[in-house]
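Sequence and structure are no longer studied apart. As an example, we show below a sequence and the tokens encoding its fold:
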Amino acid sequence: MSSELLEGVTWFRGSSIRIRRAGIEVHVDPYGHDADTPDAGRADFILLTHPHYDNFSEEDIDRLRSPDTVVVAPATMKKQLNEADHFLRAGDVLQLRDLDLLAMPAYNVDKRYHPPEAGWLGYVFTLDGVTYYHAGDTDLIEAMMSVRCDVAFLPVDGHYTMNAGDAARAGIFCGANVVVPIRWSDGPTADEAMRLASAEDLNVELLERTV
């Protein structure tokens, strides 16, 4: 089941995810692509969660987009991104060609890095019959209880976002068939990812970072 649901999924680094499925290519927070990336001009959809440097890279967006690429971003990013096709607020729903999308809130509860008033986002989207939840940079929040998904990409760094314990609860809240930890690398963040992988009642897949 995991391999089927994760077919075409690549984790680059941080929160950067690419999904290729049914001939459609979706990027969330593209970051770290080389100048000669084979993905150049191939993105059908680019979803941006917030404007921090490792989530919003104009260089990567320019490399991946073509004239037909649809770019979706939080409404509060209009100053940084003039050329997005859709600016959304939490709760907004989009029905696009090949992609159905729901904008979700993403924020810190007791930290200052991602304040609720910033209006930053995660996304629930369905592609070729598989529903994905990319939580963005967030803590465990009540809105996650309304999510139903097949695959959940959940941050686990434990400093700027929730830790493994809260990510495990988020995975249970949203009923994910597969949970994929993001926002981890080496050291303490790797420990958090391993803690999540050992959580009971969850199917957790640790993807290999590609950059």
